[in-house]
Design brief:
There is one protein chain. By secondary structure, the chain is mostly helical. Helix content is about 65%, strand content about 0%. It is built from 8 helices and no strands. The longest helix is centred in the first third of the chain and has 21 residues, at about 20-40. The radius of gyration is 18 Å and the shape is globular.
């Protein structure tokens, strides 16, 4: 590899910066924020609980904590402005996500075929967006 090409990795977690108990409390608060935001968007209590339990909610909260330099108050304040990527929650059911993943295994990134065979009710753009948002 030429010297001018360098590969850099980005550090995205420093476990020594936060205690386990603080992390647990932060994640509980972050999930509560996501649930509340989902219900404020017109969702039911059940939809709020689903939003709080999604992996993307946790991943988003951890990313926000890291970018806030492990200051839980600052991270929670930022999460109230952007609680979680809700586009997936509102547009995709668990069954639709399973069908999408089945389509990816069958057809790779051929979104037209995935849509035609498994998800005719979805737009092709929507198929591309879930691939990007899926952790």
């Amino acid at each position: 590899m030429p010297e001018s090409c360098q590969h850099h990795e980005e550090l995205c977690w420093l476990s020594a910066k936060i205690t386990d108990s603080s992390l647990i409390m932060y994640l509980r608060a972050a999930r509560s924020v996501a649930a509340f935001a989902s219900m404020c968007d017109g969702g039911s209590t059940e939809e709020g609980c689903r939003a709080a339990s999604r992996d993307i909610t946790t991943v988003s909260a951890l990313g926000m904590l890291h970018s806030s330099k492990y200051d839980t108050a600052k991270a929670l304040q930022a999460l109230t402005k952007m609680p979680a990527p809700r586009r997936v929650e509102q547009k995709w059911s668990e069954e639709e996500i399973k069908l999408f993943m089945k389509g990816v295994r069958q057809f790779g990134k051929n979104f037209f075929k995935i849509r035609k065979e498994h998800l005719p009710m979805k737009e092709t753009v929507s198929l591309k967006s879930i691939l990007i948002l899926k952790p």
